[in-house]
């Protein structure tokens, strides 16, 4: 009972209220987000599906503070981010989110270990602590044995697991993933999704855009976007 009450009263980590994002003006305006209300809680996963152009990436970008709402509110841990100065948004983004993209976005000539360490931007993190943390994460994604390999020599699935480790190196509260398995075969995709499951078990919130209905089914919550609105 107590746990239930705590659950109900718990402030969502991320909360959109009537959020809109419009590109362009006048008759050419595109309402990529058109009044979205959404809550994301710690230790829960949310899958976002919808046709191409429906507004999934826009929603993910707004959630990750890579973009800002044109109207409505976006609260992180109860704090309204609307109208925050860019410097504060940068700091909040770095402290809160890890990003995983479909195309990995890794630097081919770096080693696996260097790629993961690159995810840490804070200069006050001790070099030795960062090295250990990156090594632990590579162990967790099953790539400890490839630590010194160049990224260019990895398979797609291995690259995405490096990208996941890089996204986790700052210990983010939220992992945002835009079609993270879109370039992977089924077996390799399953490995990445298993890693996500474990991350969520450790209290991280996961928001993932996916084309795959089966992947969406695995998540705790699932919404479909249509024309910038939540359809289901
Ligand atoms: N930077 C932008 N400038 C203009 N229009 C954009 C921009 N980003 C997205 N859009 C438009 O917003 C709509 C939603 O795009 P997006 O969020 O990328 O959809 P999805 O990820 O679901 O394919 C599309 O019509 C797209 O063309
Ligand atoms: Mg997209």
């Amino acid at each position: 009972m107590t746990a239930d009450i705590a659950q109900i009263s718990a402030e969502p980590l991320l909360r959109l209220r009537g959020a809109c994002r419009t590109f362009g003006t006048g008759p050419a305006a595109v309402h990529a987000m058109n009044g979205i209300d959404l809550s994301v809680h710690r230790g829960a996963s949310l899958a976002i599906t919808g046709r191409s152009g429906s507004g999934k990436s826009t929603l993910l970008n707004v959630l990750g503070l890579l973009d800002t709402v044109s109207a409505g509110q976006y609260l992180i841990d109860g704090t309204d981010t609307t109208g925050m100065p860019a410097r504060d948004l940068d700091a909040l983004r770095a402290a809160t989110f890890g990003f995983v993209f479909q195309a990995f976005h890794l630097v081919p000539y770096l080693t696996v270990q260097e790629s993961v360490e690159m995810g840490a931007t804070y200069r006050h993190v001790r070099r030795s602590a960062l090295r250990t943390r990156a090594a632990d994460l590579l162990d967790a994604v099953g790539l400890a044995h490839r630590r010194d390999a160049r990224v260019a020599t990895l398979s797609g699935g291995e690259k995405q697991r490096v990208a996941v480790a890089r996204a986790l190196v700052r210990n983010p509260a939220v992992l945002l993933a835009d079609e993270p398995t879109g370039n992977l075969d089924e077996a390799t995709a399953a490995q990445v999704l298993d890693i996500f499951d474990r991350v969520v078990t450790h209290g991280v919130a996961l928001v993932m855009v996916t084309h795959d209905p089966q992947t969406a089914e695995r998540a705790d919550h699932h919404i479909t976007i249509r024309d910038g609105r939540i359809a289901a």
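Residues 186-201 form the longest helix (16 residues). DSSP finds eight helices and ten strands in the chain.
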